[in-house]
Structures are given as C-alpha cells and as structure tokens.
C-alpha cells in the first residue's frame, strides 16, 4: 500500500483469466508511416523494392503504384498491440506461429487495429504453474478489411495466488 492507497500494476492475463472464444479488442490502433516501414525494412535487411523504391513500385501492376508496408511490420505490430491487454508480464514464452496470412496489403497512412481470439487453453503437463494458450491474432485496416491473421501458441503463467492455494 502506498500513502495514496492501493497500488495496481498493469499486467496481462493470468492463464485462468483467458476465456476460450473471447474476442479481445486492442485499442488504440496504430497508423503506419513511411518512416515506420522504411526503418523496419532496412533494420531487417529486407531489400524488396516494393517496400523501398517508390519509382520502381510506381511501374508495377496491382497496387496502383504504391509501396506496400512490410508484412513482417504488420504481424509484429498486431502482436505488439495485444501485449498490454494479454501478455504483459504474464507470458513465459512464445511457442510458435502457424496459419500466418496477409489477405490484403497495408499502405503508408493506413491504420492497423488488432484483435485476438482465445482459441484454446490447457494447463502445461511439464511446467507446473503454467498453461498453454492458443491465440488467433487478427489485424484490420481502418476500413475493417483483414490484413493479417496468425495463430500463436504461448506459454503463460498461472495466477500465483491460485497456484499457492493449490499447494
């Protein structure tokens, strides 16, 4: 207790707090800038001209001559937008990603909104006090179009107070 009353530390969800089938909406969204895309693309050594070369991209069919936002920025940001609400300080590890898709492109100036559906959860058989949670992350642009989907498996801490009671 502080002199001002109860102290509350922001955190993600304990294993027990996840609800199968629940859809968690992560707000605010994130508007991607040209700088975001170019910095991310060059930091990751991705030399794809569709991200870096405006002149070259202008001559390519399919996207009205616009450069595409790096899809790895998109998936990274979708997961990042979920952290404060779901896994901040409660995740043990990412166990893997599967079913990753990018149905529509992102462009500079688009705003990315993220949501996550809890697909399943189970207690770990080999790690007492931890559970495995399968999450489907979905990214949508400002028009509501799905621009990214990925299923992620995570290892999450159980609520320490409940673990202590079970011992």
From TrEMBL:
Transmembrane segments: none annotated. Pfam families: MaoC_dehydratas (PF01575). Residues 21-138 form the MaoC-like domain. InterPro entries: HotDog_dom_sf, MaoC-like_dom, MCH/BMMD. Belongs to the enoyl-CoA hydratase/isomerase family. This is Acyl dehydratase. It comes from Corynebacterium epidermidicanis. The lineage of its organism: Bacteria, Bacillati, Actinomycetota, Actinomycetes, Mycobacteriales.
